[in-house]
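Quick one: structure tokens for this chain, please?
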Amino acid sequence: MDDKLLNRNEKYVIGVSGGPDSMFLLDNIYHNPELDINNFIVCLINYQKRADSDHDEQIVLEYCKKRNIKVYVKKVTAADYQQYQTISHNFQNIARDIRYDFFLQISKKHHCQGVLIAHNLTDHIETYILQKQRNGIVEHYGLNEISYYHSQLLGSKVKIIRVMLKITREEIIEYLFHNQINYAIDSTNILGIYNRNIIRNEIQQINLQDMLLEINRKNNENEQLKLMAKII
């Protein structure tokens, strides 16, 4: 985990869902001797769309209560969904905006430096594959370690920090099993109802290292083009 992206004297929000990736992130932050857990605030969104969503929430609450970690929970209501439907009718986009707006609000309330998100190497490659399928021009291929979320409703932005982009999902599961960390599984992740889920089920056949080299090459080409544009 690349904790060099973090300032030891600043506060941060950690986005935690109860799933394996975010529980891995939370536990690594907690056990990192270079970091003060009191500088981290856990935020969880309960979309109340699955029968087991309260179970996911309970896993996070129990972990944080046992370790005296500050945690905020937002239970999404019908009114919330209705409000965000004025921006988009795509559920994934709505869920993302609700989630990041909540992170932004808590981050501002506690004067945090940014929000830690548990995206890993597999997410990084999934994003790149989606970008290739769309065949558009992008600022950065795959996921960036540092990016910014701009809220349409709140008219503000927050820094997004990804410290796990070199860690595979297999390493995450092995760590959680070895350290006996409880986590939840989102049953919708195995359903082929979204493009990313379809890719997620197929990515097991892909050579991750070859794909990573391709992503790095594409980003290097992007940087060269930007430099040439500045010279011209």
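The chain is about 45% helix and 10% strand.
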